[in-house]
Amino acid sequence: MQQATTPMESKPVFMPRVGSDNLVKTDMVRIERHVGFATRQKKKTLNDLHRVIKKKYGFKNVLELSTKSGNKLSFPLSPYSLQITNDDGQKYSVENAFQASKVFEQGGPYLDLLTEKPRQARKDDRLISSGELTGYDYFGMEWGVEPLTTFYDWLYINALKQHPELHEEVIQYQ
């Protein structure tokens, strides 16, 4: 009798880079995926992710930005919750600012996405139907698509910088 193989999946790990042009290093790890919709199954997958990260990188404290992580910092640091204030004093979630700033071959930026719910902004049909992504335009500040995560990293780090109340807790993690 043949045993069923455990499904595996790749997950990104984002790590700060000090003294580098790229502020964030992204690496992929392979973890066991615990199939199912129950919160318990999702927590098993997250626990496996943390175990793999700790073993591979030697980290003691891993910060997972997920609604299932159980960490009190997950919600305020989520790109759906973390707000960035632009030069005009308007506040948007990091996710909204990122999606609204995308420029494509046939459209964008789609500034109306700034006021949508973050999950709706991310799923907007125009983000798929407007051709290839050519760059980002954040209120007149233009960014290319390479290096791959630079604009998003800049956006997130600047939003975090605007929330000093989170700094002390964040630096406890690797």
Please render the helix and strand layout as text.
Blueprint: E1 8-16, E2 24-32, H1 39-57, H2 74-77, E3 83-85, E4 91-93, H3 94-101, E5 102-104, H4 118-122, H5 126-129, E6 133-138, E7 141-143, H6 150-161, H7 167-170
Antiparallel strand pairs: 1-2, 3-4, 5-6, 6-7
Question: Could you give a quick summary of the protein structure above?
Answer:
This protein has helices at about 40-55, 75, 95-100, 120, 125-130, 150-160, 165-170; strands at about 10-15, 25-30, 85, 90-95, 100-105, 135-140, 140-145. It has about 170 residues and is an alpha+beta fold. It has 2 domains: about 10-55, no CATH class; about 80-165, no CATH class.
Describe the protein.
This protein has 174 residues and is α+β, with helices and mostly antiparallel strands. It folds into two domains: 50 residues, no CATH class; 90 residues, no CATH class. The strands form three sheets. The chain has a three-stranded antiparallel sheet. Strands 1-2 form a two-stranded antiparallel sheet. A two-stranded antiparallel sheet has the order 3-4. A hairpin with a 5-residue loop joins strand 3 and strand 4. The N and C termini lie far apart (44 Å). The mean pLDDT is 89.
